[in-house]
## 1
Amino acid sequence: MSRATTEAPPQIAPEVLNRYEAVIGLEVHAQLETLTKAFCGCSTNFGDAPNSNTCPVCLGLPGALPVLNKKALELALRASLAINCTIQERSRFARKNYFYPDLPKGYQISMYELPLATQGWLDIEVEGAHKRIGITRLHMEDDAGKSLHEGFADSDRWSYIDFNRCGVPLIEIVSEPDLRTPAEAYAYLNTLKQILEYMEVSDCNMEQGSLRCDANVSVRLRGAPKFGTKAEVKNLNSFRYLSHALEYEIERQIGILESGGTIAQETRLWNVAAGRTDPMRSKEFAHDYRYFPDPDLLPVSASHLNVEGIRLSMPELPAAKLDRFQREHGITPYDAGVLTATRSLADYFEAAVRSGAPAKAAANWISVELLRRLNETGKNITDCPVRPEGLAELLKKIESKEITTASGKKVFATMFETGKSASQIVAAEGLAQISDSGAIEEIARAVVAKSPDNVAKYRSGNEGVFKFFVGQVMRETRGQANPQLVNEALKKVLAES
Ligand SMILES: [Zn+2]
C-alpha cells in the first residue's frame, strides 16, 4: 500500500467535486429473527455467556450434518417478497472457503451462483424526490464467530474467540449500483431497515450487529459512460458511519484522479477514530474462495415452498400503511410519516384509535407530547408508561370538554411519570374543567376590575388586550376554565364596564 492512500484527502474545491459523480452500491447483512441458528438447534440469543451456544454442527466438527432452519427460510422469502424480488425456482447453498480463527468450519455456508431471489427494487425519497433503486439479489448465509481483541487484562498478548454467533442465519441484500450520493445511500438503508423491521424479518439492531452494511464506491466524470474502479468500504455499521465514510471515500477517489493517479481495486475499512477509510486488503475475487455446492445441504426448490401463503400472511408494508393512515384516519402526510416511522409506533397509534381516541388528536399528541417525553427519558415506545388505552382515555376527556387542553398536558405529564390513569389524576388534582358560566363571569369581572388601564386600551380599539384578559382568567383558574365560556364572559363584562 502507498502511504498516500491513508492520508486525509486534500481539500477539493466544490467546482471540482461537482464535475464528478459517485456510483454506490450497498451490501446489507441482516440477522434473521429466529430462535435457533441456521443449520442447528443452538440458541441465537445475544449476550449469552461466550461459547455457551455451540454444538458439533456450528463448530464444524467432523461428521456433523447441517439441517436448514425452516423459519429462517420463511423469513428470507418474506424479505425477498417485501423488496419486490423474484423467488428463484432453484437455489443452493455453497461453501465459501477461507481461513479465519472465528470460522471453525473453514468455510461459510452461503448461496452463491444460485441465490434465493433476484431482480427486486426499493423506492426511496430524498428531499421530496423519488427514486427506484434496483436490488440485484438476496441470498441466505450463516455468520462467523466473533474475535475479541480488546477488553481483557491480557489483550495486549491474546485475542479471544466467542463462537456463539457461528451459524446464526443472515440474509445478504445486494443493491444495483444505482445510488449516486451519500444521502441516497442513507435513504436506501433506512427504507430497507424499516421494511425488514415491519416484516419481523430482523430486529435490525445495529449496536448488536443485526444489521451491517458495506458499500462499493467508485467515481467518474459526470456523463462518462463507464464506471470507475470501485473500492469496497467495510464496517459501516451505523447511519453516521455510512454517511461519513461515503463522503470521505468519494473525495479521496476524486483527489487521486485529479492528481493523475489511479484507483486501486481494494477493500477498505472505515476507521471510526481517525474518520477515514484505510486500506485493508487488495480486493479478493470470487475464485479466491473456491466456492462449491455444499454436499451436506439439499438445494431449495421454490415449487416445494408455499410462497403464495407467505405472501398472503405478510404484514402490511410501511408505504401501504403510510397511504392507509392518511385515507382511513384523515391525518396529514407529515403526521402519517412520523407515525409509520416504526411499526411499534404505528401499532401504538392504531391501538389508541381503536380505544376511542379521535384520530387527529391521537396523531398530534403522539407526534408531539409522547415522542418528546420518550426522547427526554430515553425510553422506547414499547416501554412507554402511558399505554394506548390510557392516552385514548385522556383524549376523550379533552374532546368531551371534561378537561381543557392545557390541563390535559399536565395530566399527560403526570401519567407519564407515575403510570396513573387520567381519571385518577383528574380526580386527585381537581382538574375537571370549570364550565360554570356564573363562576367564570365572576372571575372575569374581578380580572377586569384590576386593570382599568387595559380596559381603556381595549375601549380605544386595541383588540390585542383581549388576549391579556383571557390569560389572566386562565391563570386564576389554573387553566381549567372552558375557553369558550371565558371568551363569552369577558366580552360581556368588557361591554358592560
Ligand atoms: Zn449449534
## 2
Amino acid sequence: MRVACLGGGPGGLYFAIAMKLRDAGHEIVVVERNRPYDTFGWGVVLSDETLANLRAADPASAEEIRRAFVYWDDIAVFYRGTVTRSSGHGFSGIGRKRLLNILQERARALGVELRFETEIDGLEPYRGYDLVVGADGMNSKVRNAVAHAFKPDIDVRLAKYIWLGTHRKFDDAFTFIFEETEHGWIWAHAYQFDADTATFIVECSEATWRGLGFEHMSQEETIAACERIFAANLGGHRLMTNAGHLRGSAWLNFNRVLCRTWSHDNVVLMGDAAATAHFSVGSGTKLALESAIALAEYLHTEPSMGDALRRYEDERRTEALRLQSAARNSTEWFEEVERYFHLDPVQFNYALLTRSQRISHENLRARDKAWLESAEMWFEERATGARPNSARPPMFTPFRLRDLQLKNRVVVSPMAQYRAVDGMPTDWHFVHLAERAKGGAGLVVTEMTCVSAQGRITPGCTGMYAAEHERAWKRIVDFVHAETDAKIAIQLGHSGPKGSTQLGWETMDAPLPHGNWEVMAPSAVAWSRDNQLPRQMTRADMEEVRAQFVRAAEMAERAGFDMLELHYAHGYLMSAFITPLTNRRTDEFGGGLENRMRFPLEVFHAVRAVWPSAKPISVRISANDWVGADGITPQDAVAIARLLKEAGVDIVDVSAGQTSQAARPVYGRMFQTPFSDRIRNEVGIATMAVGNIYEPDHVNSILMAGRADLCCLARPHLADPYWTLHAAAQLGYTGETWPKPYLAGRDQLHRLAGRAEPATERV
Ligand SMILES: Cc1cc2nc3c(=O)[nH]c(=O)nc-3n(C[C@H](O)[C@H](O)[C@H](O)COP(=O)(O)OP(=O)(O)OC[C@H]3O[C@@H](n4cnc5c(N)ncnc54)[C@H](O)[C@@H]3O)c2cc1C
Ligand SMILES: Cc1cc2nc3c(=O)[nH]c(=O)nc-3n(C[C@H](O)[C@H](O)[C@H](O)COP(=O)(O)O)c2cc1C
C-alpha cells in the first residue's frame, strides 16, 4: 500500500510506524514542514494506560518513551497565598521534542520516508497514493481541502494562552498557580517533562490579556511580563519560548475542532486535524496515538479499506466525543474561573480537581483519603460552626435557612402524582409523602399544589384552595413531624397556559378529551397547536391570582408546612410571564426582564408578607428555555436570580426547560447543575440543583465543589423512597436516623453494605 501521512506530529509518525510493523512492504512517506529538531510546544502528559497501549503496539519505541518519562503524583494549587496539595494523581510527562525524535528514529529504522521542510498545500501532489492521512494538526490544510465532506465545526474558545517552558522544574507536583493582577486573574499550568525542564502554560481571559497589554507585546516582552507576575513561583528562573516560527506574540486561543465525518474517498483525518481536546485535560496526544494504532489495525483486519475507514471513524469518533465532553467542562471551568475566586482555598481546589467531571468524590477518596477527609471536615465545620472530630460525607451535613434546620442536603423533588380528587390530597399522597419522609431525605417537597381549581394542571392535581384541602395536608404534615425528622415544604403554583390537560401517564400536556376548563396566561399563546388558546390575563385576573397565592400560603402555614416553594418554572403561569417565548404583553408586565418579572415578584412579596418570617421561601425557575437567544438563557437566569435575591427569596431551586415545544435540551448526568453553579457563585444566593442527580457521589461532589447547597432528586425517589438511608449505608455513614421500628433492617443493611465494593466511578 502507498500511504502519504501529511503531518509529522505524534499521530502521523505513529501511524507510519504501526503500518510498517504490520507489513514492511508498505511504502510510506511522512511529510512535515518543520525540521526534525524544530518543534513547537514543550512537554506533554501521558497516562499509564496510554503507555500500556503503546507497549502493546510497539514495545521498542514504548521502552524509549518510558525511559524518557518523568513521574509525579501530586497536584499543588497556589491560590490566595495558600498552597493546597493532594496526592495519588499519577502523571507522567515527556518532552514533545523528545517524543517526536523517538518516533522519527523508529519510523526511519522501519523504512518510512521522512520528508522534512515540505509544506503541505492541497492534495494534488498526493493523488497517486492509495491512502492519504491528514495528520497535520489543529489547523489542518488536508481538512480544509476536503471541507465540503468533513464539515468541520471550529469553536474558537475564549481564553488566551501561551505555551512556555522553564528550568524551574516543578518536579514535586503538577502545579497550578493563580495570580491576581490589577487587570484580573492570570494562571499557569506547570509540569516537569525532563530532567531539568518544565512546561509552563500561561492562561487568562481576553479582558485581562488586553488589560495587561499582552496584545501589543512581542514574545520577549510577554515573557518578561509573565516572569514578573509569576516571580514568587519561578525561584529566579527564566521563562522560555520555542515558538519563534510563530509571528507576533505567540498567544493563542484554543480551537475546539469537531468534524461531521473523518474520511472521504481515500483521505482520512487523524489526531488534532479531526478532533481536539483542550490541553487542560492533557489527552490530545493520547487521542492521536491511539487513533493511529486503531486505523493501522483495521486496515489489516477489515475486508476492505472502506470497511476499515468506517470502523475507524465509528469507534474513534465516539472516543473523541467522550473526551471532548470532559474537555469542554474543563475548558469552561477555566474560562469562567473568575466566578470561583470568592471560594475558600479548600473548595476552590476541590472544584479545580473535579472540573472535568471525570473525577468524582469517591475517586478523590481513593487517590488521597487524608486530603479528602480534611476537605469534608472543612465543609462540615462551615455547616455546623464546630470543628468535627471525624469526617462525614457532605450530603449528611445540616443546612439552615432562616429558622429552618435541615438535617441533611437531600431533597425529595416535587413530583405530581395525579391522584387528587377535586384538589384533595388522598391516602395516596399520605402514604407517598410519609414514606419519603421516613426514607431519610432532609426535606420533602409536595407536588405542585394549585392555588385554585382553574390553576390545576390536570383533574388529578392537588390544591390548596378549600378548607378540606388544608385539613388533608395537615394530616400529612403532622405525621411527618411526629414520626420523622424530615421537614416538609409545599410547592404552590398555577398552571396558566398548561392547565386543563391529561394525567402524566396519559398524553402529557394534551387537552382533556372532555370537561376542559378555561385557561389563562400572560398572552394568548397556546402551549401547542393542540392546546386551547389561553385568555390574556387582565389586571383584575392578576390581582385574583395573587390573592389565591396568599390564601394558599396562609392555609399552608395553618397546615404546619416548614417551608414554601413557589413554582415559577416549566411553562406554568409564572414561568409564562418570565419567558419572552410566551409573554408578548406590551404593558408594564411584558417587554424586558424587569417587566416580565414584575408580576411574579408582586406575588412573591404578597406571599412573603403573610408567610412567617422564621420560615424560608424558595422559588423554582427554568434557568434555560433550551431555544438559544430567543428564550431564557443561563445568563438571563443569573439576572432572574439577582432579582429574586433582592426581593428576599431564600433559595433558588434551579430547574430548566419545559417552557417551549421547540426546546432542544442537552441531557446528561447532572445536566442542569451548571446553571445552579453559575447562579450560586455569580449571584451569591443559596441554590438547589436538580436534574439527573442519582448517585451519592453526584450529591457529594456538587456540594463539596460549591455548585449548590441542596440537591433535589425526583425519579430516584420514585424508585426508592429510602434513597438517602441506602446512600448512608453505601457510604458507611451511620449518623442517619432510621424509624425505630426499622432498626433491625438498618443493622442488616449496613452489615451487607460493609461487604460490598466501595462506590467509585472510573476516571
Ligand atoms: C498548550 C498545549 C499543551 C498540550 N499538552 C498536552 C498534554 O499534556 N498531553 C497531551 O496528550 N496532549 C497535549 N496537547 C495536545 C497535543 O499537543 C495534540 O493533541 C497532539 O500534538 C496532536 O497530535 P497530531 O499529530 O494530531 O498533531 P500535531 O502534533 O499538531 O502535529 C501536526 C504536525 O503537522 C505539521 N503541519 C501542520 N501543517 C502543516 C503544513 N501545512 N505543512 C506541513 N506540515 C504541517 C506540524 O508542523 C506538526 O508537526 C497540548 C496542546 C497544547 C496546545
Ligand atoms: C412524575 C414527575 C412529576 C413531576 N412533577 C413536578 C412538579 O409537580 N413540580 C415540579 O416543579 N417539578 C416536577 N417534576 C420535575 C422534578 O421535580 C425534577 O425537576 C425532574 O424530574 C428532574 O429530576 P430527576 O432527574 O431527579 O428526575 C416532576 C417529575 C416527575 C418525574
